[in-house]
DNA sequence: TCCTAAGCGAGACGGTACGTCCGGTCTTTGC
DNA sequence: GCAAAGACCGGACGTACCGTCTCGCTTAGGA
């Protein structure tokens, strides 16, 4: 009949304060100048309270991402019936986020975090939609006859997300027409 | 009559020892567990000798890459006349390098380094061929009529390189047929 | 009509478990590596149960001493009629306890505790007999004409106890004849 | 021809600052509320600079004592020809130091430190003169016929020093005549 | 029989200090 | 003037305890 759980419960206040502080410092300092000690101070929390619930800063970032505190909206592509336009708009949204220096810094820091921590890597890919929403949109493009039926959709979406990452890593500024060209690169020009 | 340059010249021995030690530790410990102090000890060199010539570990890694000490061969795609086969072979070479845990660790660490340091980012992209050899090979594919003439080659190569990076970040193991599918994703299925 | 005392009474089980655990850890770790947290764990008790009844580890140690759990027998000198022999035997008993490394460690830790906490200091002095039994034995030595009638007995017993403490602090191993020499030092050689 | 020693020398400035800070904090906070971290902050020094030269706070205190920064003058007894008066004066000097709350606190902390660290224990005993100057003075008392020739001088001096320690541990305030009584306790009344 | 106060275990929390590692800078000596 | 050796200040690491607190349960009068 009993829950078997005695003692004080985990403080939601502390948890939220930690995540918020993490986001704040992550945006300003970047992933590897991010310190647990700094987060604790910023959050007004004891270091041990962080270590009690997260083994390191990797999973902490992952949880921030899960809560949608790092990337806006999860970048789900629209469906207006025109795949090419929808994907270009999706890329525009992402690059719009990257034009802001803060956004760009967060994004590159996320890549850094992903390189160190699988969990972050998977979540980053998924946040951009590579796992579900993007593939689904491509699937509807196939149904609409705008994409060849035997196109490897998973790989196409990986390539799209990858192109965004390459741009971020090489700090290549976005030129007009680039989103369309990237879409053309993966779903073909004349289809 | 002289240029006035007096005193000892930079020790090539020390320089090489430092680069070699960097590569060794980079492969085992990864980018951000890489320490200048550790490199100095491993190289049998004073810390100051490193700081005298490199401002931080980013450019140090960049120099290692320039010297071809981190990525093998620079991954130049062949030209057998069949673009699809050539690109698949190129991907096979890269993924072959990534199958080895050491290679995979180096690659992810490079991504991490790239996220911090533009120079590394650009060199990483170029080492994979995105800037020249890959685009050139795609160009010859266009000439051979295997790729539509108006395909955005720069973007195609970025998407290819990006796909590799996404795979590395999400630690997705390579399945048989994946290289071909990736190539199909960017140059079309039925061409 | 009643005092109005409601609720559960203090658990004797917990009290005894705490004192026993304290003695155990005190002997092995020493006074200032002794932690309330460690005692609680060792005793299978909640920390708060300790803090409810003792303000700090000083009084906890004092209570252990009061219960006779730390020093054996309270070191009461015998009375065979020969003061010199009786005091030497008393010293032998104490030094016998100090020869054992555990006993020596306990004794030094008690000195440490005494330096921090008056209560412990007084109890330590009394446990060795300086306040009552030792002075009484000296008094009977005076009556028997073995000690000059105007000897300051209180000070003599302090000096004796003090000599033991000095030996413990400087870890001077006991040589044969030392107890007799110490007795001679305070009650004279030829009396 | 060479000394074989390269690199910067130990900073005397830092060493002295550390010792001074230690003395300052030792006097105010006592031995076991003394923290390496606090000393470093007080001295304006990095923690590592302390750990580089001292393994723990015990030897640090010992060095302070060696430098005469903790106990004044080393308490060497005078020689006016009258042992009893000289020893009483020596006790007066010590108890005079103990009347001051700061002095008393330092002394008790030293006992605490001595209980933990042999080196401190030996130095504390020696600082009070038990090893040399006190025994020598007693020796001259024997030559002058004021002390029986077969009195165990080493033990007598230990008993004297011990009596002081017992007083300190039990916080017994000094009454008039106490120094004389203590001297009488160890060198006899009517000799 | 309920009510209520207290004891108790468990354990989270804000803190302080631990002892270690490394970042960069500086000094000393030798080549 | 470069390079080794290495001391130095600073800052973060991850761990151990501090003393306080909250929680759910048990114990035992008083209503």
From TrEMBL, chains A, B, C, D:
The keyword Transcription applies. InterPro entries: Homeodomain-like_sf, HTH-type_TetR-like_transc_reg, HTH_TetR, Tet_transcr_reg_TetR-rel_C_sf, TetR_C. The keyword Metal-binding does not apply. Pfam families: TetR_C_11, TetR_N. Residues 12-72 form the HTH tetR-type domain. It comes from the Bacteria. Keywords: DNA-binding, Transcription, Transcription regulation. GO terms for molecular function: DNA-binding transcription factor activity; transcription cis-regulatory region binding. PROSITE patterns: HTH_TETR_2. Residues 35-54 bind DNA. PANTHER family: HTH-TYPE TRANSCRIPTIONAL REGULATOR RUTR, TETR-FAMILY TRANSCRIPTIONAL REGULATOR. This is DNA-binding transcriptional regulator, AcrR family. The lineage of its organism: Bacteria, Bacillati, Actinomycetota, Actinomycetes, Micrococcales.
């Amino acid at each position: 009949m009993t829950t078997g759980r005695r003692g004080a419960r985990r403080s939601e206040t502390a948890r939220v304060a930690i995540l918020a502080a993490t986001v704040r410092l992550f945006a300003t300092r970047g992933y590897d100048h991010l310190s647990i000690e700094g987060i604790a101070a910023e959050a007004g929390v004891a270091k041990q309270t962080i270590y009690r619930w997260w083994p390191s800063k990797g999973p902490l970032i992952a949880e921030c991402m899960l809560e949608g505190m790092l990337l806006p909206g999860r970048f789900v592509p629209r469906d207006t019936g025109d795949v090419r336009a929808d994907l270009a708009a999706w890329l525009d949204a992402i690059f719009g986020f990257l034009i802001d220096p803060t956004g760009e810094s967060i994004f590159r820091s996320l890549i850094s975090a992903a390189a160190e921590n699988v969990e972050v890597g998977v979540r980053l890919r998924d946040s951009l939609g590579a796992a579900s929403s993007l593939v689904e949109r491509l699937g509807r493009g196939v149904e609409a006859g705008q994409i060849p039926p035997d196109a490897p959709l998973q790989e196409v979406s990986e390539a799209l997300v990858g192109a965004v990452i390459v741009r971020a890593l090489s700090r290549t500024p976005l030129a007009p027409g680039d989103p369309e060209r990237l879409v053309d690169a993966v779903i073909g020009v004349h289809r």
